[in-house]
């Protein structure tokens, strides 16, 4: 017959150690998720600004402005104007035509231990050209 252990003095230490480990894992996960949400919102703002600039100037040639935005925000993003109706090959968009922009960035999501997961985040916006090209 087995005797039960009546002395449980060290049991609290193990419970505390496991609780601290679990709280640490939860904090790492929460910090990563919050930073991804903040980056997603900032990327959406950058996309809106790119579309606004392209709409005002009537062109998808916004490389200098995109580089300036990337420098100011600290986000190293890529952008594309897929779906935009171009007037000519130089990127001009005729008055009233749609300009669609998609930006994306790839971030590393820190896992537990040495695990690092790559997560793509993208945002899109659209606008209408305000310039008439002859």
Summarize the structure.
The chain has 134 residues and is α+β, with helices and mostly antiparallel strands.
Give structural notes:
The structure is a single chain. Strand 2 and strand 3 form a beta hairpin. The chain is built from two helices and three strands. The mean pLDDT is 88. It has helices spanning 11-57, 63-73; strands spanning 78-80, 98-110, 116-128.
Topology:
Elements: H1 11-57, H2 63-73, E1 78-80, E2 98-110, E3 116-128
Antiparallel strand pairs: 1-2, 2-3
| Low-confidence region ranges | none
Estimate percent helicity.
40-55%
Give, in spatial order, the strands making up the sheet with the most strands.
1-2-3
Mean pLDDT: 88
What is the count of structural domains?
A: 1
Q: How many beta-strand segments?
A: 3
Rg over C-alpha atoms, rounded to the nearest angstrom: 25 Å
Instruction: Give me the number of helical elements.
Output: 2
Terminal CA distance reads 98 Å
- Which class do the helix and strand fractions yield? alpha+beta
What composes the largest sheet?
Answer: 3 strands, antiparallel
What percent strand?
15-25%
| Helix-strand topology string | HHEEE
């Amino acid at each position: 017959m087995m005797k039960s252990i009546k002395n449980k003095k060290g049991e609290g230490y193990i419970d505390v150690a496991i609780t601290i480990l679990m709280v640490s894992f939860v904090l790492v996960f929460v910090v990563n998720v919050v930073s991804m949400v903040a980056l997603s919102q900032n990327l959406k703002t950058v996309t809106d600004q790119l579309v606004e600039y392209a709409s005002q100037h009537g062109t998808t040639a916004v490389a200098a402005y995109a580089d300036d935005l990337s420098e100011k925000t600290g986000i190293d993003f890529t952008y594309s104007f897929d779906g935009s109706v171009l007037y000519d090959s130089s990127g001009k968009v005729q008055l009233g035509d749609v300009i669609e922009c998609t930006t994306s960035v790839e971030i590393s999501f820190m896992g537990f231990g040495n695990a690092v997961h790559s997560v793509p985040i993208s945002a899109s916006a659209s606008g209408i050209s305000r310039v008439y090209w002859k």
